[in-house]
Amino acid sequence: MSQRFKSEKVFAALKKTAAVISVFSLALSFAGCAKKESAAGGAKFGKINIPGLDGSLCGAPIYIAYENGYFTEEGFDVTLISADTETRKIGLNNGTIPIVNGDFQFFPSMEQGVNTVVVDKLHDGCIKIVVRPDSNIKSPEDLKGLKIGVDEVGGTPHQVASVWLENAGISARQEDHQVEFLPFADGNLELEALYKGELDAAAMWDPLASVAEKAGKVKVILDITKDEPFAGKACCFLYASKVLYEKNPEEVAALLRAYRKAQDFINKNPEKAVDIIIKGKYSQIEDKELAVQLISSYNYPSFEQRSAGVFNVKEDVHYFAQQLFDIGYLKTDADTYTSKYFVDVNVDGKK
Q1: For residue 234, which of 63, 121, 150, 291 is within the disulfide window of CB 3.0 to 4.6 Å?
Q2: What is the CATH number of the domain that holds 273?
Q3: pLDDT, tens digit only, all 351 positions of the chain
Q4: 270 and 194 in one domain?
Q5: How would you classify the pairing of strands 147-150 and 77-81?
Q6: Which residue, 196, 223, 250, sits at the end of a domain?
Q7: Using CA atoms in the order 86, 211, 266, 280, what is the torsion angle rounded to 10 degrees?
Q8: Residues 202 and 63 in one domain
């Protein structure tokens, strides 16, 4: 298997460590946010851990659902924990983590055996590709033969850059040597490498990219919120453990109701949402004006927009499955993939 993804052999080994990871996640939970005591013993679905301490602004619905009590209203005693991508995959696979937000980087993992399903949209774009202010790079064609920073090979910024390049006829495959991807686990180090000329471009998560842009340190050449082939499409999805969904679909439905209440709140009250996020120190961003601008651009769905059918999660899953299939990141055709890995959850319990 290529360098782009963890091999099935590695994932099999990771599954054997699930018990250890579960203990680790439990330990992390004690370091998580200590939410004010909810009604003792009154949680219908009991205690659960949800990854929600990664510092990203786009995870706002988790923070709002937690702080505004939406999880509690829906019958959960939630502890927010820190969990890296592999820990999330293992937790979803064995059911110890019920739900996570994630990008289409999870798509190949499901194809490779992670036992999870896409159950909803979280929001639109939160990834940008940036260059130095004096750079002449403006298009994917200009990146041919150059170095691009990413957080990890196989991660979503890498996949975004790959789709953008491949749509322009530039191979993103490492073995073709038309571009070179360099991974940086720390986004600040990725930016430093860009500033020093060690990178020609950097594919990055917000808010780091937007903070650097506002400071005049970079210019944006791709913003997936508004630029093709990503404009108007979901960037982040909600993934539920298939183990949990098959065992208790109502629990997944209740979780989605909590998320949707939070999305509706953010849509209608972006400034209040940012105040809650900054006060709780959930995100690394401190610039309130920029945070409101970004959180508004992510297009979190309101109840009215959902009722009007403005968003079609299934179509977005199909779209990105097709994009990833076209460039060789998925082996399953988009129709088959969507029917297998997308679930339209009966959130309201209507027949």
Answers
A1: 121
A2: 3.40.190.10
A3: 433 333 344 334 434 444 434 433 434 343 344 344 444 456 799 999 999 988 888 899 999 999 999 999 999 999 999 988 889 999 999 999 999 998 887 899 999 999 999 999 989 888 999 999 999 999 999 999 999 999 988 888 998 999 999 999 999 988 889 999 999 988 899 999 999 999 999 999 888 899 999 999 999 999 998 999 998 888 889 999 999 999 999 999 999 999 999 999 999 999 999 999 999 999 878 889 999 999 999 999 999 999 998 889 999 999 999 999 998 889 999 999 999 999 999 998 765
A4: no
A5: unpaired
A6: 223
A7: 70
A8: no
* Rounded distance between C-alpha atoms, residue 174 and residue 153, angstroms: 10
Tell whether 351 is covered by a domain. no
Q: Are 127 and 224 in contact (CB under 8 A)?
A: yes
Burial, 344: exposed, middle or buried (Cβ in 10 Å; 0-12, 13-18, 19+)?
Answer: exposed
Q: CA 249, CA 245: separation in Å to the nearest integer?
A: 4
Radius of gyration for the chain, computed over Cα atoms and rounded to the nearest angstrom:
20
Count CA atoms within 13 Å of residue 335 on its CB side: 0
* Nearest to 331, CA basis, from 13, 117, 91, 113: 113
Structural domains counted in the chain: 2
Per the structure, the complete domain to which residue 324 belongs is given by 8-124+235-341
Please state, in angstroms and as integers, the Cα–Cα distance from residue 5 to each residue in 107, 138, 155, 248, 329, following that order.
11, 28, 8, 31, 9
1, part of any domain: no
* CA nearest neighbour of 18 among 104, 107, 103, 114: 114
Q: Which of 192, 223, 254 is the last residue of a domain?
A: 223
Note whether 258 and 333 are same-domain residues. yes
Phi/psi zone of residue 2: left (φ > 0), alpha (ψ -120 to 50 degrees), beta?
A: beta
How far is 319 from 171, CA to CA, in rounded Å? 20
DSSP structural state of residue 258 = H
For 193-337, strand residue ranges (E) read 201-205, 219-223, 234-241
| 118 and 134 share one domain | no
CA angle 69, 266, 123 (to 5 degrees): 110
Asked if residue 350 is part of any domain, the answer here is: no
pTM: 0.82
Same domain, yes or no, for 39 and 158? Answer: no
Supply 31's token pair: 């370091």
